[in-house]
Amino acid sequence: xxxxxxxPRTLADELRSRPDDALAELLRTRPDLLSPVPGDLTQxxxxxxxxxxxxxxxxxxxxxxxxxxxxxxxxxxxxPFGTLAALLPGGEDELPRALADLxxxxxxxxxxxxxRLVRTARxxxxxxxxxxxxxxxxxSLAEASVGMSPGRLQEILTAAGxxxxxxxxxxxxxxxxxxxxRERMAALLAQAPAEATAMLSKLTWGxxxxxxxxxxxxxxxWLLDRGLLLPAGPRTVVLPREAALHLRNGRAHRDLExxxxxxxxxxxxxxxxxDTTAAGQAFTAVGVVEELLKxxxxxxxxxxxxxxxxxxxxxxxxVALDVSEEEAAFWxxxxxxxxxxxxxxxxxxxYAPTPGYDDWLELAPQRRWxxxxxxxxxxxxxxGLVGTRDTKGRTLSALGPGLDRTLAPSxxxxxxxxxxxxxxxxxxxxxxxxxxxxxxxxxRADGALRERLCHWTLTEAERLGLTGRGALAxxxxxxxxxxxxxxxxxxxLAPLLPEPLDHVxxxxxxxxVAPGPLERPLAQALGVLADIESKGGATVYRFSPGSVRxxxxxxxxxxDLHAFLATHSRTPVPQPLTYxxxxxxxxxxxxxxxxASSYVRCDDDALLTEILADxxxxxxxxxxxxxxxxxSPAAPDQLLTRLREMGYAPAAExxxxxxxxxRADAHRTPPRSAPEPVPDGPPQPDTTLxxxxxRAIRAGDLAATxxxxxxxxxxxxxxxxxxxxTSADTLATMQSAVLTGEAVWIGYVNADGAASQRVIAxxxxxxxxxxxxxxxxxxxxxxxxxxxxxxxxxxDG
Length: 797
Hints:
This protein is of the alpha+beta class. The chain is 44% helix and 12% strand. The strands form 8 sheets. It has a 5-stranded mixed beta sheet with strand order 18-19-17-16-20, with helices on one face. The radius of gyration is 39 Å and the shape is elongated.
């Protein structure tokens, strides 16, 4: 319903005048209004005005839209467009855009000549003694003079040079006219003592409240006598809003920010430099995650009792990866978010790679990178918080509780979008990016966290190869397209990744140099035969007796090792390395260890005598069972370790006397899914849901506002009998009604067996259920199709 002037009388009236796409946009930007679907537009308007919903809507406003709402909160209600524009000088060009944003989110309503701010928003933004306005303005004259005696008002009129009136209402009106008349107000202030003018200047831009003594000074009394200051408490005075606006030359804000801060490039690099640098880091990122999980599959760290990873395990992992603890926490959390890492759930609970890690290893490098990026973009866990303390003073640990921050995913994506606005190769200044984010969402309560997240996001994007030298990589731009085209980004990254090598360079000092990334089978085999000594542009592997023995324990023979090195080395196999392999192989398996608790068996009785006489074997408590057998109460694995420490190369054997092949213990968890990100409020509704919701709200509003008379069904049925149709006819009629928006007559049997007849307006048929507005019950309901006995169209007249 609208007033005689054509302006809507309520927010619900304005919502009725909006087209369906505008209602759908409102529900999309404020998804909390959809839970549950409102029965009609009056319910929608009521829900849009609740405090919690309005607070969320205000948090989504940019700086100028918020300043516009703040100006409306201190402006007359309703407020003409011209009056509002006068409060925001310098923002006239952007004001229509700001009003459109506020209107789209149902925070204002009414025509431009009668703009109204939603009451709850006005209450949140209106000043009071305890909650000053963001504009720094105080209460109006009418609000500040509540409780003042009529005689005192007449005294103020007389002191201000105005004629007295017959009632307080006209007295206040005369004061308002004086304070809003620039010439008369300037003349009044010209008479003020200098000290009084100085006091007013201190209160002009807020806060508007000041303290006075029990015996105010002459300048204060001069201001109080003329209503330029009004009592707000026993020793508190306030500058009325009308007076402050005059002193501000009509400005609601000291610093108006109608335009978003511009982000400019602080450095510019060539596109090739950015892409190659970023691609190299992307390849390194994949390698670091693989190295992390390879480390943890053989030495799975324990889960703390309170959940999370221990400090010692974090330090050990950082050393193994040759990174800082902060960076190690990032890679650990990333692997966890991607579903590659989880706890095994055993009694002695430990973290280990998941079966998904094995599937991930089979992917091409660019697709492995894409899986990591997908997890990073949506993850709500913030690795940068590791090591900090929560509100209860407890230290937050990697993989532990308390790391989720719902702001993180949207901020990461928004920062990448801002980087994409720069010319290709342009790297922004981090402070400029943060200033832009502050302008876009000034009311977010987590401002300090946002600043840290901004820094962490730029750092993490560089680690993951999304940026190179601070600029967004070209292959990362598809990630910002609709639907987040990760596969397209991976396809563009693939040509930039280094080709894996099938060879190494053997050195005479028992090292091998890999001048680039190796093919996975070669890297795995070499990782067993040698230890990584250093990493970088080239990886250096070191051969040692222990590493060679590790390869022999894994089932390789000396002949296999010689052939492997000869095949994959571009340099001749050094003689010292050949001797090392032959020497370790000659002694490998010469001793046999089994369970007695354990025993040592050897055909060389002299060697056993030597071991028995060695003082270092005393802890093993060995004893000679036969010329070729020693027994020990120690466990076989302890006996093997001790003999190797003494310089021998024993091999374990089974109960049948066969040599046991010892492979690394590749621990895996049971199947695990990646952790679900914590949603930042209600989920975004899809187009199908929005269309159905708008249709249901329209149907409910029609039933609530228009005279309704249920028409007789077309099909003649006995009195009280339910309509009867086949399941196929019922489904077809329902689907047709959804498309046409018409109401139908149905017979329905509930779970208790009670039969009833209903008139419904179907809005969706899905999964064996029909969602419809029930005109009989005056609400939206969902009905199982198998409980509908039949359906009939309504009569035309």
